[in-house]
TrEMBL record:
Family designation: Belongs to the bacterial microcompartments protein family.
Signal peptide residue numbers: none
Principal localisation: other
Locations listed in the record: Bacterial microcompartment
The protein's name: Propanediol utilization protein
Highest taxon of source: Bacteria
UniProt keyword annotation of Cytoplasm present: no
BMC domain span: 4-86, 96-182
UniProt keyword annotations, A-Z: Bacterial microcompartment
Entry-linked PANTHER family: BACTERIAL MICROCOMPARTMENT SHELL PROTEIN PDUJ, PROPANEDIOL UTILIZATION PROTEIN PDUA
The species this protein was found in: Geosporobacter ferrireducens
Amino acid sequence: MKKAIGLLEFKSIAKGMEATDEMLKAADVELILATPICPGKYISIVTGNVGAVKNAVEVGKSVGDIFTVDEYFIPNVSEKVFPAITATSNPEKIASLGIIETISAVTSILVGDIAVKTSNVELLEIRIARGLGGKGFTIITGEVSAVQSAVKACENNLKETGGIVSSVVIASPAKDFIAKLL
């Protein structure tokens, strides 16, 4: 069982690759994702036991140095986050949608974790910066009141950092729109 997740975003692809390699050498972690994102950034996501992930993030941050844009360490991450990162979530019903747009790729994962821990919602997808100019977004579903509560919790948690660009709740989304999302 995965217990923690570590997320790093770099403003140099080469430095991001070097930091990812050092993270994997320094700690017993599993690499979930390591890829260039636009514009000219690199993201690394690792998972494993709390101590190992914390160590890997610190190593990655140190190696990335001035090229580290953003980093998060989430102990006891919700298991629901992992299928959303790979867009393999499959909810039974979509009563409403919450879309939370974030300033950075790694913040979208933090938002997903906050949403499922604070309200009875499901994660549809955590989109990480591909074709988004370095931004990310998280899509959640559930009953309208639960989605509204989750979006508000995310906004409150990230108010000080300015990590959320915009958020909306769509009650009863059109079937054609849902079909294009999934």
